[in-house]
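#lab-general

N.A. 3:47 PM
ok so I finally got the sequence cleaned up, no stray characters, all 267 residues accounted for. can someone with queue access submit it? mine expired

B.Y. 3:52 PM
send it over

N.A. 3:53 PM
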Amino acid sequence: MKNAKKFFSGNMQNFLLPIATVFVFLLIWQIAAATGAVPESKLPQPTRILNTFFEKMQSPDPDGSTLIQNALASLKVTLAGLLMGIFLGTPIGLLMGWYKPVDNFVRPLFEIIRPIPPIAWIPLTILWIGVGMFAKVMIIFFSAFIPCILNSYAGIKGTSKTLINVSKTFGATNFEIFYKIGVPSAMPMVFAGMRIAMGGAWGTLVAAELLAANTGLGYMIMMGRQFGRPDIIVLGMVVIGILGYLFTLTFEKIENYIVRGRAEHEK
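B.Y. 4:20 PM
back already:
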């Protein structure tokens, strides 16, 4: 009984503390905006953002699309670029970390590309493939590709030498050790790379949607700036933040499922 009470008390605390943090933040924001400490033209009140949210759910003004249409357009671009980065970057990182010839072959070019900011690819992307959805997807891809390689590389490099040596003793081939020992042990770092890639993808969303976009959250934010609508700007930022948080939770659930399944299988 005592343990059950402690369990529910701990869960309730974990549930209420984040809500309290958000509530206090919104309360301070509301008071600062309502009292004029922060001009309404610079930062609208949270209640105004809420009203704008309900308005934008039905109204396409001022950017030409409703909030749902903008969010779906941004999700489409972000998911396409993110998945490309994950499915290309993760295998490359794993192979580089395990096979020395692959590392020696890929590393020189990778080290040249790695420091280049994703938005620096925008002019070249326009020259290569013009403007449109695929151009925006490529900008998102560049932001997601590098973290996936780096974390996959670091994860498989940390594979236990003891497990590798034991596997060799029992006659396992290098490829068998790679996919049965190396890849599973790298999974925590791989998922960490995916979360970083996801953050980078959302972070470059606004820049990507500057490529002659006519819809999307980034486009909505830019139109809010042009029309002097800080409520539209903040609403777009809030929606991007919420969607990013939901992506993070999803990745964590998938990671926990895979890692827990692996641990139970090893038992």
